[in-house]
Write a structure and sequence with these properties.
about 15% strand, elongated, 6 helices
Length: about 120
């Protein structure tokens, strides 16, 4: 579902105009720009993404009717419309295979020899 459709649904559910909600829905779906298929949802369409969105947009937004609307409710409704439930981040990552590069780069340890009297540093491999 496109952000505009979600925003119009939010306006029907919470009042106000779709323009009141579009920024929240665009943010939740902005991962489409990087993963242009349904897998983009695994990044933010989960319990972690919902709480992250709340940190970005605040606890509530004021719609055009002057009503405070809980950002978490807007995001939860979006995820439920798309997935039918709110998965955890763990569930979203469960089928992601563990790759060697995910452990970080292994840098060989070097021994450093300091000579304080000569004020120089020598790297010993």
């Amino acid at each position: 579902m496109k952000p505009l459709v979600h925003a119009k649904n939010s306006a029907r559910k919470f009042g106000g105009k779709w323009e009141d909600y579009i920024a929240v829905h665009e943010w939740l779906d902005h991962t489409k720009a990087h993963v242009p298929d349904a897998r983009h949802r695994m990044v933010l369409h989960n319990s972690w993404g919902i709480y992250l969105g709340q940190q970005i947009f605040g606890i509530a937004i004021k719609n055009s009717e002057g009503r405070d609307v809980c950002v978490r409710s807007i995001l939860e409704h979006h995820v439920i419309e798309d997935l039918g439930h709110i998965p955890t981040l763990e569930k979203c990552l469960a089928s992601l295979p563990s790759e060697p590069w995910m452990g970080g780069v292994s840098v060989p340890q070097r021994k450093i020899k300091l000579s304080l009297s000569e004020h120089n540093v020598e790297i010993v491999d």
